[in-house]
Every structure is written in structure tokens, then in C-alpha cells.
Amino acid sequence: MRAPYDPLDRIAREPDALEAFYRDHVEAVQRFVARRVSDPHVAADLTADVFLAAVDSAATYDPSRGPVVAWLYGVGRNAIAAEARRRARELHAVRRIEGRRLLDPGSLARIEERLDAERESRRLYRAIAELSAGDRALLELVSLDGLSVADAARVLGVKPATARVRLHRSRARVTARLHGTGAPELPDRALPVEVHP
Amino acid sequence: MNGTDQLDTFESALLTELRREVAEHPAPATRATTRAVRRPKRRLRLAAIGATGVAASAVAVFGLGGSGGSPAYAVDQSADGDVIVTVHRLDDAAGLEQALADKGIDADVSYDPQGSPDGHTYRIPGPGGTGPTGGQEGGSAPDRDGGPITRLGGGPDSGAITSSGPAFPEEDGCGFSESVQPPTLRQQGGDWVLRIPAASPLLDGRHLGIGTTVDGLLSVWYAGVEPGTYCGVASFGEPPA
């Protein structure tokens, strides 16, 4: 059965296709964000940013290069990196949709619950921040977001074999960071995994 | 796909805004054949996938080593059998890897350019472990509460940072004990000196890794006794202030 948002660029033209896409992925995106930031207002803004970025770049999705969620995480990474650069420069760019403006107390509490649940993941995320940019992107997508090595390699445009070598090296470094010495290797896939097949 | 039927207030409000955005600014229809053609982005521009900024920018200020053709490393063996690896510059990783292999050390050496254009080499931080002075962009500066970071010995005045002391408890998962000492890593002037004791399992095929951290410091790690475990210290020296 074809999803109502197949091909994906329909989400940039058809509100109903966008809604179906949104409902299928809103939880995954919010968890993706919660693994990276600890402030609920920033999380709300970033959730809006990621969906807007998905709409903007829907035409770049190529189904032969992996599942939608892998592509979406790639888009999300860029949106979050852009936000980090904005904050670093203290630019107050005007957002098309300011997520935090849409918050009410009940929603805020739900976001905070998600943030609590992802506390350990954020610790891992910070340890991953020690790596070089390319290694970091790869390890994030695999160990933090639960993509397969093959899908993460496609998102980043590297060969799967190269990705495996780099992951091996990165895991060693991050494990040393997290535990000092003699620590077990990071799992191949992070828990919880929210990838939709 | 398991769509979410129940949206909370925020999620519903965001959905409403997104629907309005798409309704008011629909993208032109694309055919499969023209999909590769990039349409101009709307206001929110995306960063290129490789330019994941943040951590990457911290090191790029190192610039070229400028040591004009001098060797990047030296691998020597002392009279008592210790292998001494001196890294002058984070350059020629493949050469060092081969030199270590010649000593029977199974090593993987990689000095990632850390996001700068390929081909750059980095100067070793000076004594005292001062790292690069470049600006770390906000947001993702490593949060030091993230867990224990093994940071070893060396007084601030010594100009050397040494892995002395019981870096590894007893006969631990790293395979070191009273009689089999772990390797040490010292910063000596502008050089890094890694000393691998003669009895070390690293000279007996245990996998060794040498690389860099985003702080521009040398990192050394090695396989633990159990498959899949790793030992070592990710960085020596203090990160940049």
C-alpha cells in the first residue's frame, strides 16, 4: 500500500499528504530532538524547524537510498546544526513557525517527559561531540538514532565498508570517554530504536 | 507506518501551522524525471550535509605545521626493549602505521582532519596541553558532566602530561598488572612520546589505535582483554579554555 505521501514531494504541495507524514513521524522527530537538547522551548522550536526543513527538501528524498526516517534524520541533523550556528552567533533569525509559541502547559509537560526519558542518550550525545564531524555524524545516526549502518552511510554519502571502519574507531573513543577504561563496547544499535521499517 | 492519531495541543497547533505553510506556499509539482533538478530553497536554507559545523570548527585553526619536510614521527626501541613512538606532527599517519607494523604492533593511526579541508596538518599543542584557540561554536561544546574522563597526572609546571600511577586497576580488563605496565603518553615540548613497555601485550598483537580528539590532542587506545572492549585514554592534556 502506498503511503499518502508517496512520492514524498507531495508533502510540500498537499496539506493532507503533509498531515499523514506528520502524524507518522511526529513522535520520532520529537524523540530525535530530545536526544540532543534539554530545553523544552528549544525542543519545540526545533521540532517545527525539522518539519519545515523536511517540507523544503522533500524533493531530495530518493527512496532507493533508504527509508524515509533515515532521510528525515539527515534533514533533522542539518536543521539542528543550523540552529546551533544561529545560537552561536546570537542571530535572532525570524522563524517561519516558532514552535515554542504553540506550547501549552500540558504539551510542555509531555515534552519534558520525553526529555527526561532521553537523558542517557544526551549523555552519549555529548560524548559523541568529542569526535570529528564525519565520525560524529555517523555514530549519532547509528548508535543514537538507531539507523542501520548501511542507511547511515547513505545519508552521509560514504561507503558502507568505510562507515564500519569509522564506527569501530569512534566507538572505541567514545567508550573511553564515557567509562575511562575497560568499558564494554557501545551497542550496535541504540535503545530505544524508533526506526520504522 | 503507525501514525499518531492523538496529538497533544502543541502537536495539533504545529500541524495546523505546517498545513497552512504548505497551502500558502505550495512547491511546484515535480516529475520523477526532474526530481534531480534542485528547486530553489525557500527561506529556511539547509546546511550542506558535510558541514556539520559545531565541533568541527574547534580545530580548524591549527593550520599547516610548517615544519618543511621534517619527519612527522619516529619509532625507536630502547635498550631494554621498550618501543618509543615520538610524534612530532599529526601527519603521515599511514607512515607511522607502517613503522609500527614493522615493530610487530598492529596499529590503526588516523589523524582526522576534523572537518577542515583534506591535506591540512596540525601542530601539536604546546607544553601544558594548550589546545587550539579557535572558537568553539556554542551549543555543542562538550559538556564535561557527561561522565568520568580519565585525565592523568602531570603537574601544571612540569610541561609534561604523563600517564603515571594506577591508570589501570590490578590485573584488569586491559591486561595490565604490577609487572606488565600500560603504555605511557607524555607531552614533551611540541612532541608526543608514547612508550610501550617491552612486556606489553601491545607488542604481541593487541590492537592499538592512535588518533586525535577534537581538542587537537593525541589520543591512544587499545583493545581490552575481552573482545569488544577497549582501554586507553581519549585525551591527555587540558582542553582549550
Which ranges of chain A are low-confidence, i.e. pLDDT below 50, for 5 or more consecutive residues?
Answer: 181-197
- Looking at how many chains there are and whether they match, the oligomeric state comes to heterodimer
What is the H/E order of chain A? Answer: HHHHHHHH
Number of strands of chain B: 8
Low-confidence stretches of chain B: 31-68, 113-171, 233-241
Largest sheet of chain A: none
- Put simply, the count of helices of chain A is 8
User: What would the average pLDDT of chain A be, to the nearest integer?
Assistant: 79
Structure description:
Chain A is mainly alpha-helical. In chain A, 61% of the residues lie in helices and 0% in strands. Chain A is built from eight helices and no strands. Chain A has helices spanning 15-34, 40-56, 68-88, 105-117, 119-128, 133-144, 149-156, 160-179. Chain A is globular. The two termini of chain A are 14 Å apart. Chain B has 241 residues and is of the alpha+beta class. A four-stranded antiparallel β-sheet of chain B has the order 1-2-5-4, with helices on one face. A four-stranded mixed β-sheet of chain B has the order 3-6-7-8. Mean pLDDT of chain B is 57; it is low at 31-68, 113-171 and 233-241. The radius of gyration of chain B is 24 Å and the shape is elongated. Helices cover 11% and strands 17% of the residues of chain B. In chain B, strand 7 (218-223) and strand 8 (230-233) form a beta hairpin.
Could you provide a short overview of the structure?
By secondary structure, chain A is mainly α. Helices cover 61% and strands 0% of the residues of chain A. The longest helix of chain A is centred in the middle third of the chain and has 21 residues, at 68-88.
Give short descriptive properties of this protein.
heterodimer, A: about 200 residues, mainly alpha, 8 helices, globular, disordered C terminus, B: about 240 residues, alpha+beta, 4-stranded antiparallel β-sheet, 4-stranded mixed β-sheet, 2 helices
